[in-house]
Design goal:
With about 650 residues, the chain is an alpha/beta fold. Helix content is about 45%, strand content about 20%. It contains 20 helices and 18 strands. A 6-stranded mixed β-sheet has the order 5-6-7-3-8-9, with helices on both faces. The chain has a 6-stranded mixed β-sheet with strand order 14-15-16-12-17-18, with helices on both faces. A 3-stranded antiparallel β-sheet has the order 2-1-4, with no helix packed on it. Helix 5 packs across helix 6.
């Protein structure tokens, strides 16, 4: 669908990448990875046609559509949420208008036998056929389904977009993009503004959609579940793997080890050659050999080793001063903003040494409760901070508290104590402030860079209660690994507000779920919580399908509970088998229809203008294939739900 040939991009004297060649095929779901600054976002902009390369070609197949979601975009606030999402279908309105104009022209003309009249009939037929494939009759349902999947409530649909934060407006732009159903989807960090439930919905949507996908994300679990191919940009080159991200990580280790061995061998050769040149430079009898070796060194293509994976580096928080047994106790907490109730009746206790997650939809009160704990806002109820609790707090506005007159190095040097001061450069490098970046003034840093610097500073301060509000939004995967290992080794208490499942996995042992003005406690890790949520949803679905029975039923006796669980499991397995059979049947139909289309397209290459039946057959089978594909998508979604 898209072919990249000989691509080169340079900014001034710096070459970002060059001689890049690869092809994006129809069913490819590609994770584009590499360290920050490697050129991932630039690559997406070039493929989208929003930026021109220094040289090279991006060849796009005729008539394909490309949808692009950048990290930052200008948002307009002229409509309600639903009206803005409906703009995704503007092209259908334009197509309807074009069809109507052509039909009016047909009705007015009388030159029925002319070539131009016949051509007009064919154009009307083609446009009408194309329009019927776009499911325009289901626009309303598609809009509502997509908006709700991305976390909007029905009550939000008629609210002006101006009432929503930038993160929620980005969700509207994402909804518009998904509703357009482009042939190629380019997404740059789409999960940055989503909560866990919305990320899971988007994950399922992308797994089941047809068409190509090129994805940039630092969410390891997300890209691992969605993509089937990984392209890494490193040192101006690309490495293309036809595997998922997890498999790529293992293969990359092997590649770097091989590069390192080759690099070390070459360095020994260079060292030995330079020694020979220096030793015999002024001996006439060795002049020919010396010149030969000098030329050899000049022509030698130097081996570069890919960026070192700094996630292996270990960082530790300073030992936590001992606090009381219960750092945080909340009883009957309530918070209102005017007439809006955020949460009510919140009661929980966090014990010393516990690591807990606050999760839930955006706007459900996670950050609000953190601000209550920090004493930043008033609330009703009782909130007690334990004896000798020293809080280390990372919030989204933490970057604003940095001294902008200092350099990056000075900012960290002022808070580092003990032997950690000898490793400041290593620490800065792990968080992408290596080399000259350490000498930058804080005032010239981007918002993301300031957030990373604030995170490093927090890593070095002696505290016993860490409160981290979305700490990973501006970190790449190696830096997230460094932070994750530091939190796992931390001997104090931790509260993490995050939507990053992979980051939370292995850190937290309790989850507090925010929603419906309540906070519910779940024991176990993040995946235990997510599994329980799926089971709860399934049970609610089953109960709602038999409301009369559910309301009349008495609690099950303990002795019969095991039998009921067994019967439910057997019923679930039966439904899974049925769903799998349906998917397989539809896949067989799709393969047959695709083969028929392929055969017809071979005939079309030799068809004459009189042989019109073949065009109608092609159109009919294409339409049938689209219908079967739509059924297959629904069947796959049903199978996923059944397995949950």
């Amino acid at each position: 669908m898209i072919s990249i040939q000989g691509l080169k991009v340079e900014f001034g004297s710096q070459v970002l990448f060059e001689n890049i060649n690869y092809v994006i095929n129809k069913r490819d779901k590609v994770a584009l990875v590499g360290k920050n600054g490697a050129g991932k976002s630039t690559m997406l902009k070039i493929i989208a046609g929003e930026q021109q390369p220094t040289s090279g070609v991006v060849a796009r197949q005729a008539d394909i559509t490309i949808g692009y979601l950048p990290q930052q975009m200008r948002l307009k606030d002229e409509h309600t949420v639903k009206q803005e999402a409906a703009l995704a279908f503007e092209h259908l309105q334009q197509m309807d208008a074009a069809i109507e104009r052509m039909n009016n022209e047909l009705a007015e003309r009388t030159d029925y036998d002319s070539d131009s009249y016949q051509e007009l009939i064919e154009r009307v037929a083609q446009k009408t056929e194309l329009r019927s494939l776009m499911q325009g009759d289901h626009i309303e349902a598609e809009i509502e389904k997509t908006l709700m999947g991305l976390g909007f409530e029905r009550s939000d649909f008629d609210r002006p977009t101006s009432e929503f934060s930038g993160g929620w407006r980005m969700r509207i732009e994402l909804a518009k993009l998904l509703l357009r159903r482009p042939d190629v989807l380019l997404l740059d960090e789409p999960t940055n503004h989503l909560d866990i439930e919305s990320i899971q919905w988007l994950e399922a949507f992308l797994k089941n959609r047809n068409g190509a996908l090129l994805l940039v994300s630092h969410d390891r679990a997300f890209i691992d579940n969605v993509t089937n191919r990984t392209i890494e940009i490193s040192l101006g080159k690309i490495y293309d793997y036809k595997v998922s991200y997890s498999q790529f990580v293992e293969l990359r280790k092997e590649r770097v080890e091989q590069q390192m061995r080759a690099y070390e061998n070459q360095q020994k050769l260079i060292h030995d050659t330079e020694d020979f040149i220096e030793k015999f430079r002024y001996k006439a009898t060795k002049a020919v050999q010396v010149q030969s070796r000098i030329k050899m060194l000049d022509k030698l293509e130097r081996i570069e080793v890919d960026e070192v994976d700094r996630s292996r580096m270990r960082l530790k928080f300073p030992p936590a001063p001992r606090s009381g047994d219960y750092p945080v106790i909340a009883e009957d907490l309530r918070k209102d903003y005017g007439n809006l109730n955020v949460f009510d009746g919140v009661t929980f206790t966090i014990k010393r040494g516990e690591k807990v997650a606050f999760v839930g939809k955006n706007g459900a009160g996670k950050s609000t409760l953190v601000k209550c704990i920090m004493g930043e806002i008033p609330f009703d109820g009782k909130l007690q901070i334990g004896h000798n609790v020293k809080i280390g707090y990372f919030a989204q506005n933490q970057a604003q508290l940095l001294d902008e007159s200092l350099t990056v190095y000075e900012t960290i040097d002022y808070v580092a104590v003990g032997d950690i001061r000898t490793r400041i450069n290593d620490i800065l490098g792990a968080f992408m402030f290596g080399g000259k970046n350490a000498d930058k003034k804080v005032k010239v840093l981007s918002g993301g860079e300031k957030s990373r610097l604030a995170m490093i500073r927090l890593l070095l301060q002696p505290v016993n209660l860490l409160i981290l509000d979305e700490p990973t939004n501006h970190l790449d995967m190696p830096s997230k690994d460094v932070l994750k290992e530091a939190i796992q080794a931390f001997d104090g208490t931790v509260i993490v507000v995050s939507h990053d499942r992979d980051f939370l996995n292995g850190i937290v042992n309790k989850v507090y779920e925010f929603g419906d003005h309540r906070v519910r406690e779940h024991l176990g890790g993040i995946y235990d919580f997510l599994q329980k949520k799926r089971l709860d949803s399934l049970q609610q679905l089953e109960a709602s399908s038999h409301p009369a029975t559910a309301s009349a039923a008495e609690p099950e006796p303990a002795a019969s509970q095991g039998k009921m669980d067994y019967q439910r499991q057997k019923e679930r397995e039966r439904r899974i088998r049925q769903a799998e059979k349906k998917v397989k049947t539809l896949e067989t139909q799709i393969a047959n229809l695709e083969q028929q289309l392929s055969d017809i397209e071979q005939q079309l290459s030799t068809a004459t203008s009189e042989n019109l039946d073949i065009y109608y057959t092609h159109s009919k089978i294409s339409r049938e294939l689209e219908e079967v594909m739509a059924k297959w998508e629904l069947a796959c979604e049903e199978l996923e739900k059944t397995k949950q």
